[in-house]
């Protein structure tokens, strides 16, 4: 399996996972409005990840944002769980986010040269 196909599969899995948070978002809207608000951001991000499947190179920013914001969230949530500020069960969420970060960073598309620059480089090589 090539790297781009693996990235597209990862984007689909993470995108669908984030969109699936739409159900608890609606369920917890009255009991825990802050959690529902957070889930709304993930649901929205999930939609953009699914859109990124068409052209991952053109969607480098959304992929990087997903990875690094998930890292920040995991670091904060993990710290809170270890310090008993939230339930230890939250460490499961931390593990999921760390896996998402690792996969997206490992598969992230590299920056490509603009078409005109790569074309002029090819002309100079011949």
Main attributes?
single chain; mainly alpha; 126 residues
Compact summary:
The chain is mainly α and 126 residues long.
Task: Describe the 3D structure.
The protein has 126 residues and is mainly alpha-helical. Helices cover 76% and strands 0% of the residues. The chain contains 6 helices and no strands. The chain has helices at residues 3-20, 22-27, 33-52, 60-82, 90-107, 115-125. Helix 1 (3-20) runs antiparallel to helix 3, helix 1 (3-20) runs antiparallel to helix 5 (90-107) and helix 3 runs antiparallel to helix 4. The longest helix is centred in the middle third of the chain and has 23 residues, at 60-82. It is globular, with a radius of gyration of 18 Å.
Q: Give the overall form.
A: globular
Termini separation (Å)? 32 Å
Percent in strands: under 5%
**Poorly predicted segments:** none
What letter string, H or E per element, gives the SSE order?
Answer: HHHHHH
Estimate the helix proportion, in percent: over 70%
Rg calculated over all Cα atoms: 18 Å
Q: Which whole number gives the mean pLDDT?
A: 88
Structural class: mainly alpha
Secondary structure tally: strands? 0
Largest sheet: none
Number of helical segments? 6
